[in-house]
Amino acid sequence: MGCVGSSQAKADGNPKKICKPKPWKHHQPITKSELIQLRDEFWDTAPHYGGRKEIWDALRAAAEADLTLAQAIVDSAGVIVQNADLTVCYDERGAKYELPKYVLSEPTNLIQDN
């Protein structure tokens, strides 16, 4: 039996539904190419933060997919979603995975490339 604020548990059969992150603003206006570079740098270094590479790969695929496919990806990979926007997740062994908002959605102050 879990409490109201508990995270997803495999046994309860009620996984947390993924949703889009809330709108956010980068500390300064950013171009699409700069955003892509930030994302690539994050994903290239993410496995060094700990956790398993296959979970990082699944989280990347989910971050780049539409919500329905993202839900299927995290469910099949055994990812436990703490925050519905995927900013905080765990694997079945309890390793924590934190994703910055810039890999999950675009900022409100995205500007055109020159």
From TrEMBL:
It comes from the Eukaryota. This is Uncharacterized protein. The lineage of its organism: Eukaryota, Viridiplantae, Streptophyta, Embryophyta, Tracheophyta.
